[in-house]
Specification:
The complex is a heterotrimer of chains A (92), B (284) and C (381).
Chain A: H1 3-10, E1 22-27, H2 37-41, E2 47-53, E3 59-63, H3 76-80, E4 86-91
Antiparallel strand pairs in A: 1-4, 2-3
Chain B: E1 5-6, H1 31-45, E2 52-56, H2 64-67, E3 71-74, H3 80-90, E4 95-101, H4 102-108, H5 110-119, E5 124-129, H6 164-171, E6 175-180, H7 184-196, E7 201-206, H8 222-232, E8 233-235, E9 253-260, H9 266-277
Parallel strand pairs in B: 2-3, 2-4, 4-5, 5-7, 6-7, 8-9
Antiparallel strand pairs in B: 6-9
Helix pairs in contact in B: 1-7, 4-5, 5-6
Chain C: E1 9-14, H1 15-26, E2 28-33, H2 40-52, E3 56-59, H3 63-75, E4 79-84, H4 86-102, E5 106-114, E6 120-124, H5 129-134, E7 143-145, H6 150-167, E8 170-176, H7 177-181, E9 183-188, E10 232-234, H8 248-263, H9 266-269, E11 272-275, E12 282-286, H10 290-303, E13 308-313, E14 315-317, H11 321-328, E15 333-338, H12 345-351, E16 356-360, H13 369-380
Helix pairs in contact in C: 1-2, 1-6, 3-4, 10-13
The chains are: A alpha+beta (92), B alpha/beta (284), C alpha/beta (381).
């Protein structure tokens, strides 16, 4: 038992039937205050601080280079953003 | 997807006075998360927005009502629960939610809190606890942990704080929960549950307050506090409420939906009284 | 099954009871209170009578909560009232200001007792006159009626609701221990003969073309919860949308609108009675229970050959300045007796064109007529 058994148990039996969702990230730059929650808590590590400033002087998030297809639309960034400045939509 | 797409509106904007955004709260403040969770819960509740009422007291969290596109009231300091009591007695069909801070709800408004819980008034109360008075610049209050430094406890707080869920449960509330601003999905579910509970429903939401509390108490960034929640939170719905004090010293931060019980609500008991009394008056 | 409404006709009733029956006839169906002598009979009778007419009467944890609950109930569409005395009235100041800025029609009855502080709870006082006007912080205007008999307590309670509803503002009935606890004849008219004013309510459909707060309006219609208005009602200084603002220009506009609701209607609000003032050289200006002593004193003075008269002020705030000004131009002296150490005498003196003598007495009893007669004699001489 242990780690290996857990890994096996957590593997869905019908994994082949599952399609991993792909999310599109939307942001409203003017609302961002650069708290860092979205890029710190993104479970897929998709986001990072950009070098773009909004009119209030905050650098809003962007998608990390190389992670363009990694968002799974889990909505964590949207839930944890205190500014209602970011959300994701599933791409069909 | 390739890159982020810039947008003008957020899907939750229809429940917000979005022309007022960005809001006044500091970077990393958790109140915005709670406000968005409340909006999500309203969407999920199935109750139309015009049947929801949002009432706040004074303070940082007191500003929530002004951002919600609902019938909203920004009342006096500490009195939001009393205001909500009068309103919901006359319109028991409406879903009345009080959102305010710890200083407002349990310090200046502490008496209204325990009596509303005792009467089991059918309203929802979301108390955002950031351990200090933020709007006035960072003074200690009824929830500030022992030893914590604020502008009015410069040598460390020498008052014991309230254990709020224990207090509210003992006073008689139908529903009592505690979550943090990191537990957003659980928080949304708890708020949604509050909206179907008959009786007094209460959630304490632990929130970062980086500039006025965190800075002096080893959480200089909001992320430090969120990281503390991640490391130390323990979900225990059956926790012994007498043992869930918050000291912020690395002890388990117990969260969960602690109490969910059916007790007759104040509104139900009053309606019953009116049924028994009406028509009995012979005039004078 | 009875309607529960009071029977029209002649009754013998305690002032505090008459107040409750009047409130019921005025359409009040929400009472939130906290027990306090000598107003508790209002609360107790409301707890018996309100449920009989489908109303709600609840006990709150303190007077701050009572008034907060009234404002909530008012925005839920109910006519709402509370009753208290001095110490409770002090606690209400906070939310009287809230009702003023939120434009919530509510009625507060203060059955005054002797003060300051806990004072003498069972005895009479008139020490809350200035507090009723200036007690809450910031600039505000209040409407205050002072009854001198059980009948006036009844009539003015109905009028207080009508004024509150018409102007969307808190209205105070400033009674006193004597009027509250005295039993007296009161005539209750048939319901159809009583004028009842209902508030103007905001139609949510209009909000697509107009803002909820029009500061050039006389009185804005009231957005009631649950009707789809979804308006923000704020204790902060707010703009025409109801949003908080620190704009000095908006603040000025909002305050002028709020104060103007009462100042522009002052002349309609003024109520007073004159007795034997036509040829009077000395006029006693009195209100509340003191007006009873004053009337007796005026009759005694007349019997001694002094041309005395009585002006009974029923509306004490907004202060009936023109009435004093006009009267003081044709009399020699005004005498102002009060069960306090000088309160309403100040605005009287401000507006009088003749000398003003004050008669102060506040040991917890009525001013005896002979004390006023003595002052009138001094004034006449």
């Amino acid at each position: 038992m242990g780690a290996l058994a857990l890994k096996i148990l957590r593997e869905p039996i019908n994994l082949a039937l599952f399609r991993r969702p792909l999310g599109q990230v939307y942001i409203i730059p003017e609302r961002c205050k650069e708290c860092g929650f979205c890029w710190s808590f993104c479970p897929m590590d998709v986001l990072e601080r950009s070098d773009q400033f909004n009119p209030n002087g905050y650098r809003y998030p962007r998608v990390k280079p190389g992670k363009e297809n990694d968002c799974i639309n889990c909505k964590m960034c949207s839930l944890i953003c205190p500014e209602l400045a970011i959300y994701t939509v599933e791409v069909s | 997807m390739t890159q982020v797409v810039k947008a003008q509106r957020h899907p939750r904007d229809r429940l917000l006075r979005s022309e007022r955004l960005p809001h006044i709260w500091c970077p990393g403040c958790g109140i915005g998360i709670v406000m968005a969770a409340y909006a999500d819960a309203i969407e999920a509740s199935g109750i139309p927005p015009e049947k929801h009422v949002c009432i706040s007291g004074i303070g940082c969290t007191g500003r929530v009502s002004g951002y919600m596109h609902l019938d909203s009231f920004h009342t006096t300091h500490g009195r939001a629960i009393a205001f909500a009591t009068g309103l919901s007695l006359v319109r028991p069909d409406l879903e009345v939610t009080v959102i305010s801070g710890d200083g407002d709800i349990c310090t200046i408004g502490g008496n209204h809190l325990i009596h509303a819980a005792r009467r089991n008034v059918d309203i929802n109360v979301i108390m955002v606890n950031n351990f200090n008075y933020g709007m006035t610049g960072g003074q200690h209050g009824g929830t500030t942990p022992l030893g914590a430094k604020t502008y009015t406890s410069p040598y460390g707080n020498f008052e014991n704080p309230f254990n709020i869920p224990y207090l509210v449960a003992a006073a008689g509330a139908s529903f009592v929960a505690r979550w943090t601003t990191l537990h957003v999905r659980q928080l949304i579910n708890a708020i949604k549950r509050m909206m179907s509970v008959e009786g007094f429903a209460f959630i304490e939401v632990i929130s970062p307050c980086p500039p006025t509390f965190g800075e002096f108490n080893n959480f200089p960034e909001a992320l430090d506090m969120m990281e503390y929640f991640r490391k130390h939170s323990v979900v225990d719905h059956n926790a012994d409420l007498s043992k869930i004090d918050i000291r912020l010293q690395g002890e388990p931060l117990v969260v969960g939906n602690f109490v969910d019980r059916r007790r007759p609500s104040y509104q139900e008991l009053i309606q019953e009284t009116i049924r028994r009394a009406s028509g009995r008056g012979e005039g004078i | 099954m009875s309607s529960g409404l009071p029977r029209p006709g002649v009754h013998f009733m305690m002032g505090n009871f008459a107040c409750v029956e009047a409130a019921i006839l005025a359409g009040c169906r929400f009472f939130a209170g906290y027990p306090i002598t000598p107003s508790s009979e209002i609360f107790e009778r409301a707890c018996v009578r309100f449920p009989q007419v489908g109303g709600i009467a609840v006990e709150m944890e303190d007077e701050m909560a009572s008034v907060a609950a009234l404002i909530g109930a008012s925005y839920a569409g109910a006519k709402a009232m509370t009753a208290t005395s001095g110490p409770g009235f002090s606690l209400m100041m906070e939310n009287i200001g809230l009702a003023f800025i939120m434009e919530a029609p509510i009625v507060i009855v203060n059955v005054q007792r002797a003060g300051p502080s806990t004072g003498i709870p069972t005895l009479i006082g008139q020490g809350d006159v200035m507090q009723a006007r200036w007690g809450s912080h910031g600039d505000l205007e209040t409407v205050v009626y002072a009854p001198s008999s059980v009948q006036e307590f009844f009539d003015l309670t109905i009028r207080a609701f009508n004024t509150a509803e018409r102007l969307r503002t808190p209205v105070i009935v400033l009674a006193d221990q004597l009027v509250g606890l005295m039993w007296e004849k009161v005539v209750i008219p048939p319901a159809e003969e009583i004028e009842i004013v209902e508030r103007k309510v905001m139609d949510p459909r209009l909000l697509s073309t107009r803002l909820p707060f029009d500061y050039s309006a006389d009185v804005n219609p009231m957005p009631i919860v649950g009707t789809g208005c979804r308006v923000n009602i704020d204790s902060l200084t707010h703009d025409e949308r109801g949003y908080p603002t620190t704009s000095q220009e908006v603040s000025d506009r909002m305050l002028r609108y709020l104060l103007g609701k009462i100042r522009n209607h002052a002349r309609e609000l003024w109520m007073y009675k004159e007795f034997m003032t036509d040829d009077a050289e000395v006029v006693v200006v009195a209100y509340g229970s003191t007006a009873r002593s004053a009337l007796n004193a005026v009759k005694q003075a007349r019997s001694r050959g002094i041309k005395a008269g009585l002006l009974q002020l029923i509306t004490i705030w907004p202060f009936p300045s023109d009435v004093i000004e006009r009267l003081s131009q044709r009399v020699n002296v005004l005498v102002v007796p009060e069960i306090n150490f000088g309160q309403l005498v100040h605005p009287v003196r401000e507006h009088a064109k003749c000398p003003v003598i004050e008669v102060n007495w506040a040991p917890g009893s009525l001013i005896e007529p002979n004390v006023i007669v003595d002052a009138v004699e001094v004034a006449a001489a």
